[in-house]
Design goal:
Layout: E1 2-7, H1 12-21, E2 27-30, H2 40-49, E3 52-55, H3 59-68, E4 74-77, E5 89-90, H4 98-103, E6 107-109, H5 113-128, E7 138-144, H6 149-157, E8 169-170, H7 180-187, E9 194-200, E10 206-213, H8 221-231, E11 237-239, E12 260-266, E13 270-277, H9 281-295
Parallel strand pairs: 1-2, 1-3, 3-4, 4-6, 5-6, 7-9, 11-12
Antiparallel strand pairs: 7-10, 8-9, 10-13, 12-13
């Protein structure tokens, strides 16, 4: 069996990875009891005993964990710490050539949840020349409250919560959201988009939308649809035409799943590019397991719900 360690298994991302892997007969999970969960020596031993280690930690703790690895352990970091760092492979396999890079990597940076949707929508358009690198883009992203971790989950599920938790709440108001750096870097953009993340009163699910004016496209909306069809046809990320009868697009439609659906809405003048997925699935834990499967030479959907 393959020895795997989840450093930070008590958080929402780590718990979802543990749930997905605990029933797999090919995986042997290295566990630390509560007394040793934060013990530096115990963590170092576990990290070096593992063939694959997931880091589900704050940025500084993730950097510290990497420094403890002395052998050939494959590190999959779900924090922000290494997403644009030299020597790390960005863990979004659906990008051109990225699946092969991940398969040969020892240091893999798992994408951010909001960033996953934005990059899935924008990166192929820039690469294909349908969108200029200096395009002035906007993006709004609806997410369930589980993306905020245990503290936010407790706040939303508290019986005496404030009335504000009943309504959608926009954050990242200073336009310095931590995902912006990777969104710009991976897509090859000259400037960051105006980014409006919004957390709402549902547990999990994510809907990322990039609005585009026809005049800013170097092609037609139909060419965008055709490109997405060509690029996204895997079980994990796939393009679907928007049903004519669909008047509303729920942000929690992919809750509990590990795949992502790409769609194009709007009209010939004002186009809406949308990505729907679970912030804990393809936005975090599901993506991490997909990357693990690739680096181990396994079927990439093994253990995923797609």
């Amino acid at each position: 069996m393959i020895p795997v360690f989840i450093d930070g298994s008590a958080g929402t991302t780590g718990l979802r990875i543990y749930e997905r892997l605990s029933s797999r007969p090919d995986i042997s999970l290295i566990r630390l009891d509560e007394a040793h969960r934060k013990d530096l020596q115990a963590r170092q031993e576990a990290l070096n005993a593992a063939q694959v280690a997931f880091l589900c930690l704050p940025d500084d703790a993730a950097r510290e964990a990497v420094s403890l690895v002395q052998g050939d352990t494959v590190i999959i970091d779900t924090s922000t710490a290494h997403r644009t760092a030299p020597g790390w492979v960005y863990g979004f396999p659906e990008l051109s050539g990225q699946r092969e890079r991940i398969a040969g990597a020892r240091r893999i940076a798992n994408p951010g949840c909001h960033a996953s949707g934005f990059i899935a929508l924008v990166a192929p358009l820039v690469q294909a020349g349908l969108l200029k690198a200096d395009a002035a883009l906007t993006c709004f992203s609806l997410t369930g409250y589980s993306g905020g971790g245990k503290k936010m989950i407790a706040e939303y599920e508290h019986p005496d919560r404030a009335a504000a938790y009943q309504s959608p709440r926009q954050y990242g108001l200073n336009q310095q959201h931590k995902h912006l750096k990777e969104m710009v870097h991976v897509c090859g953009l000259d400037t960051a988009p105006v980014f409006c993340p919004i957390v709402a009163d549902f547990y999990s699910g994510m809907e990322v939308t990039v609005p585009v004016f026809r005049k800013d496209l170097l092609g037609s909306p139909e060419e965008v649809r055709q490109l997405y069809q060509e690029v996204y046809h895997s079980p994990v990320v796939h393009y679907e035409p928007l049903p004519a009868e669909l008047a509303m697009l729920p942000a929690n439609q992919m809750a509990g799943r590990d795949d992502m659906v790409i769609r194009v809405a709007g009209n010939d003048e004002r186009i809406l590019l949308t990505a729907c997925f679970d912030n804990l699935g393809k936005g975090a834990s599901g993506a991490a397991i997909q990357n693990m499967n690739l680096v181990l030479g396994l079927e990439e959907t093994q253990g995923l719900i797609v």
